[in-house]
UniProtKB/TrEMBL annotation, chains A, B:
<dbReference type="InterPro" id="IPR000485">
    <property type="entry name" value="AsnC-type_HTH_dom"/>
</dbReference>
<dbReference type="InterPro" id="IPR019888">
    <property type="entry name" value="Tscrpt_reg_AsnC-like"/>
</dbReference>
<dbReference type="InterPro" id="IPR011008">
    <property type="entry name" value="Dimeric_a/b-barrel"/>
</dbReference>
<dbReference type="Pfam" id="PF13412">
    <property type="entry name" value="HTH_24"/>
</dbReference>
<dbReference type="InterPro" id="IPR036390">
    <property type="entry name" value="WH_DNA-bd_sf"/>
</dbReference>
<dbReference type="GO" id="GO:0005829">
    <property type="term" value="C:cytosol"/>
</dbReference>
<keyword id="KW-0804">Transcription</keyword>
<dbReference type="GO" id="GO:0006355">
    <property type="term" value="P:regulation of DNA-templated transcription"/>
</dbReference>
<feature type="domain" description="HTH asnC-type">
    <location>
        <begin position="8"/>
        <end position="68"/>
    </location>
</feature>
<dbReference type="GO" id="GO:0043565">
    <property type="term" value="F:sequence-specific DNA binding"/>
</dbReference>
<dbReference type="InterPro" id="IPR011991">
    <property type="entry name" value="ArsR-like_HTH"/>
</dbReference>
<keyword id="KW-0805">Transcription regulation</keyword>
<dbReference type="GO" id="GO:0043200">
    <property type="term" value="P:response to amino acid"/>
</dbReference>
<dbReference type="InterPro" id="IPR019887">
    <property type="entry name" value="Tscrpt_reg_AsnC/Lrp_C"/>
</dbReference>
<dbReference type="InterPro" id="IPR036388">
    <property type="entry name" value="WH-like_DNA-bd_sf"/>
</dbReference>
<dbReference type="Pfam" id="PF01037">
    <property type="entry name" value="AsnC_trans_reg"/>
</dbReference>
<protein>
    <submittedName>
        <fullName>Lrp/AsnC family transcriptional regulator, regulator for asnA, asnC and gidA</fullName>
    </submittedName>
</protein>
Amino acid sequence: MEKTQSTLDELDFAILSCLQKDGRMSFTEIAEHLNVSVGTARTRLNRLIEDGVISIIGRVDPDKVGFKAYAHVAVYIRPATLKEQVAQTISKMPEVSFLASTSGDYDLEVDVMCPTNNDLVEFINEISTIEGIYQTKTTLYFKVYKYAQPDLNLLK
Amino acid sequence: MEKTQSTLDELDFAILSCLQKDGRMSFTEIAEHLNVSVGTARTRLNRLIEDGVISIIGRVDPDKVGFKAYAHVAVYIRPATLKEQVAQTISKMPEVSFLASTSGDYDLEVDVMCPTNNDLVEFINEISTIEGIYQTKTTLYFKVYKYAQPDLNLLK
DNA sequence: ACTACTATCTAAATAATTTTTAGTTTGCAC
DNA sequence: GTGCAAACTAAAAATTATTTAGATAGTAGT
């Protein structure tokens, strides 16, 4: 069992800020920025990653890479008791980039990336057959204006 | 003026896949995985980053870091001609993590991360005063089941 | 078919970074 | 005060990144 760090201090936030800007920033560079030793920067960063506070990932531009259909699918479930089960099933599908339960009039929100509109139609047909899903409403994203990390300065 | 690479080959996709898993993977390790020289791995990856095909970022876990209110806001705009202008205004707000125009009955989707529910209410009050926004509908995300990168295998 | 041009890849030396190791400092409980 | 644990620092060793020069392949022009 791991001990999860309960609170983050100034240094942790400063490290997180660095990595939000450039996930490949070296330990050395981070250390210089923050006036701590390389060892400290390394220990802190590794712990943040281990604790799941931050993960360094390569985020591809869906459009540039060939995903031409990006959509939002509102999913309605009945009976409500099947929600968890449906969520588990959907979360395993590779087209799904985001899945969450909501307070809205629909139960689950599914964001999907597909190579073509055809693939999107097929995806929606596929999930419509899942037990518990009795309706879906699909909305296409036409243009993405912003896709950003939360601004940590809001927490201060 | 830069020439943007129009097509991505097998090697590019393989590099993107590596980085989706671990954005801090070293050039050396990537090169070994893919059986190319370190120089090649480096040139390719740097080009992918320059061209904006991929960006290596630190993604923080909003909840762990202190964002306790994550919501989806549907924004209705009238007259429609103000859409671009409203989008530019909203995209500058630090709470906004995602902004897109949609094909749905609302015009813009805004995803917002706030430290508390109070901050969320204030945010919604604030955008409601923007010229052109005549209605908003807010949906809270209760539980996020999945938040992933698109699966590049779907493109093959 | 030959030459020149361009782009991509490789390989080896040099520069820089990461990792390990040992030691220091600090705070806290006994 | 003593013992202990956590966090930081600093310097050597191991690894990785960058630079440089050169090899290879494809393409356009003659």
